[in-house]
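May I ask for a single protein's sequence together with how it folds?
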Amino acid sequence: MPASASDPYDLAVIGAGCAGLAGAVAAAGHGLSVALLDASPQTGGQFYRHPAPALGAARPEALHHDWPAFAALRRRLERSDVRQLSGHHVWAVTKEDGDLWAVHAATGADGADERPVRVRVRAVLLATGAYERQLPFPGWTLPGVVGAGGAQAMLKSGLVLPGRRIVVAGSGPLLLAVASSLAAAGAQVPAVIEASGYQGYARHPRVLAANPRKLAEAAVHGAALLRHRVRLRTRSAVTEVHGTDRVSAVTVTRLDRDWRPVRGTGRRIACDALAVGHGLVPQIELATALGCATRTTADGTLALALDGLQETSVRGLWAAGETGGVGGAELARAEGELAGLAAAVRLHGHPVHGGRVRELRRRRDRMRAFAEAMAVSHAPAAGWTGWLTDDTYVCRCEEVTAGRIREAVTDLGARDAHTVKLLTRAGMGWCQGRMCGTAAACLAAGGGAAEPPAERRPFAVPVPLSALASPDEPTGSRPDAAPPVDD
């Protein structure tokens, strides 16, 4: 804790998932005062999302891989002096006079409480995770179509299923985990539809050999699919959803190497729900608003460019986990701890065991190499836009169709997602382009290489006007409040 209410925290960690927890406990263990902010009322992030105690789940760990690692982090957090600020929706990070940062948040279950919060700190660790990438197709707005990660979140946190007979589709290793979880929970999963394949991993034998845990994890999911008689179809995609008030069936079509639908190969599969996702997009809006440098990942998303100790291009701002490129929970924990140790050295000059830092860097580099191989293997190819009919909604918020975007490109000269946005309003709705940004960029490229949509937004999450209009003066601390939080 800071010495007094007027003193800043040493470190604010934004995000209480794998990376954030590891970073917070590592920094606190080396003497830093740490504030841990997260929008959720519980720690664990998306990967270790679990039911609220009121649901009375007897074994919340049953639907999780490597739960003991999370349980160990949670015990360390409970024994530490880290100040946990749950239900805090961070919408901006700003630079104050001198070397201090201000973390601005809205409180409450949905960020709509009247009390805005400002936490003053000397350094920031961003561990904000990622969100799902969606590629549209005819019928994707029907009730019963959910994100693949969303289906898993429903199961983990609410103990509910999106349907009884669920097709899982898209691209990436998350599909295997989602399908095995749904099947284990009692859903009938007729098929997992993978648009890419797994042959690409064979091009990286050294990376595979260096990451045996990943192979073992894949084997566990594969065995679960066999046990539940779930069919795996590669080089295929759901190209249409059928139904009136709800999903009743999907059409699955073979794809060529460029993800173009192969004529005459469409087959219907009856189902009442579709869980679909095409990988994850790093959530980096807080960093890009501050001018942090980015890099384009192998699967066409933007991630933060980080140095060997997880620091961004802006001094005093570290990042860990999916913000630097999607790689999974084990990688996130290593990066979070490394960032926490680096912050401790910078801020307090505390000696850190050099052997531990070297071990974390080796582990990070090994797993990051696997993440890059994974991204290459499952990267969407340009031909997927052949799934879209002109009346397919691309931007659901503003009801912008693929036909309108194509018209903006062919008739009005749009060549990038920003121009498409100005001409059609695609990306101007509630989600601010998180759902449609990738699709709009691909359509704007006209079959060429699509530039990732810029992740620069003035606010990282929706924020009520009252939070912007309220005075932001220091008020001191109370026993039930986290000093030095100003409201």
Notes: The first strand starts at residue 9 and ends at 14. The chain has three domains: 9-131+281-375, 135-277, 382-448.
